[in-house]
Amino acid sequence: MKDPKGRTVIGFEKHVFVCENKRPKDHPRHCCSKKSKYDLKMLFKKELEKKNNVNVRINSAGCLDFCEQGPTVVIYPECVWYSIKNPEKDIPDIVNEHLISGNIVKRCLIKL
Ligand code: FES
Question: How far is CA 63 from the centre of its chain?
Fold first, then answer.
């Protein structure tokens, strides 16, 4: 696989880590799994399947420590952190804008 600059890439060009941590209902920090009715990892995968020649891996992750702002996603190697509040809009935008075009989706960024 070649990157956009024509360099050979070993493994994956990018990794998307999707927090799927589960905690008990009464836990004070809550958890990402209970904040969305969607399977976010599958939505990312389905959106990526619509694209050709994309060398991106979607991974499950445990707690990424931004529980209060979750559901949390981080993309490497850029180290960009997103909060997925509206999966049906946010995930296609992150795939198209960030993963395909290389532009950060500012409205989805986690607040630091
Ligand atoms: S439970 Fe998802 S970031 Fe902590």
Answer: 13
How many structural domains comprise the chain?
Answer: 1
- Domain hosting residue 57, numbered range: 14-108
What's the pLDDT tens digit per position in 16-38?
Answer: 999 999 999 899 999 999 889 99
Tell me whether residue 2 is in a domain: no
Ligand 1: list residues with CB < 6 Å: 19, 21, 31-32, 63-67, 70, 72
pTM of the model: 0.91
How many separate helices (H) and strands (E) can be counted in the chain? 2, 4
Measured from the Cα of 20, ligand 1's closest atom is 2
Domain holding 67: CATH number? 3.40.30.10
Establish if 76 belongs to a structural domain.
Answer: yes
Cβ(85)–Cβ(43) below 8 Å:
no
Question: What ligand 1 atom has the least distance to the C-alpha of 19?
Answer: 2
